[in-house]
## 1
Amino acid sequence: MPFVTTSDGVEIFFKDWGPKEAQPIVFHHGWPLSSDDWDAQMLFFVSHGYRVVAHDRRGHGRSAQVSDGHDMDHYAADAFAVVEHLDLRNAVHIGHSTGGGEVARYVAKHGEPAGRVAKAVLVSAVPPIMLKTEAYPGGLPIEVFDGLRQALAANRAQFFLDLPTGPFYGFNREGAAVHPGVIQNWWRQGMMGSAKAHYEGIKAFSETDQTEDLKAISVPTLVLHGEDDQIVPIDNAGRLSVDLVQNGTLKTYPGFSHGMLTVNADVLNADLLAFVKG
């Protein structure tokens, strides 16, 4: 199985599909999932002739369940280890949810300084910050994230069933078409990872202020967000992020959920392809 070892000795699992000479598209998954969450996008883009790469974040999926480094700095550095290992250039980096935070930190701290990134996409992403702060009074109170930690520590298996069954994909909305296989796949991905990584990752995705990361991004950046996102509300994230990046475009989707990349893959894939080709 393909792994790269980071500078602090962590084995990171990655997938690398498609022609090696083609333009690479690098996918960054959300919490608490794995690179498998990008199946619909990776199959789509490889069928269009692109090289597609995705990795499992440390403590997630098939990557090493290490004790430390569950923060945006290490997430971004691990992604850069994969990029350097594969010598990816002119890459488009696409991140979902926590993976969007990873992309913002990666592009600002590694991708642009190393000249390895062409474009960025933030999908249902957590930047600039989810937590309510003095600078961002519209954020969510710390009690919300304390509740997530409490639910995870008390019964992670049940919590990881309740989240996709309910708000993640909007399956709790009246008239929603519920997909049991999608729920089971979310649970499968989550339970592959480390409880400690997931627990500490809540702080990473909720309390990391990425204002300066966003301001540093000069490559064309597409921000995609569902207007019925119950996990990362659009007014606290997408609408703010697009104003902070230097060259950003916002596209919103009425009624779409946080998990729109999966349940509305046909719509999202077409928009992603148009941006990559444009």
Note: The two ends are 34 Å apart (CA to CA).
## 2
Amino acid sequence: MCRSIKTLRPPVTPEVSDDDIRAAALQYVRKVSGFRAPAAHNREVFEHAVDAVAAATEELLNGLQIRGTAARQR
């Protein structure tokens, strides 16, 4: 779906920053909404969606159990 989003799961990407997570969330929301940048009247809901997707992504990455490694602690 979002080909420009890189895999953030360890060990594929061992060090994932908050910026990496936010960039992936932004790409996802852009793709789903169809807007590269929201109009002024949609900016708040767009940013809320990016924040929500970033939080869900961080929760997912923190909870993943990869064979041979412990769950990530951030």
Note: The helical segments are 18-33, 43-63.
## 3
Amino acid sequence: MSSERHFPNIIITGTPGCGKTSHCEMLVGMLAEVKHFSISDIAKERKCIAAHDKLRDCDIVDEDKLLDEIEDDLEEGGILVDWHACEIFPESLIDLVVVLRCKTDVIYDRLTERGYKNSKIQENLDVEIMEIIVEEARDNYDSSIIVELESNTMEDLEQNCDKISKWFYNFPTNSENDYLRGITS
């Protein structure tokens, strides 16, 4: 946890279709001090796209260039990082990692509604089933700053954002022992 930033940086991560963007958009409405960084959009805006993966129909982000582009923003604080991966962001610049979890049937319905190809839907379901994103968070950040939240319903979304906003306004007064109190309870 940084003592230099007035406002924390929070990663909202999870499998595509789990509600990352919905959470960030709701949090922006609740927290006037934050900026929503949809990494896919930021990478395009700041010309950090290395290539396009035709098989998966997605852009490949130049992660080093991206980090160079957003480092000053992260040092200032108050950033909601919205991306399906979290491991590229230095732990020294991140204060909370929220891993959204979702039932596979919910993810399936959401991705189908978006028009994803069956192969892309299956790949994302496998990521959720095998807990790939949770493991990336655990491998790259201290467990004291990671929280897993269910994101299956509108009620989950509202409760999660309420908990995160309360945590946000207690930053940086959260002590090591109760850092995630209120979010996990």
Note: Residues 27 and 161 are 6 Å apart (CA to CA).
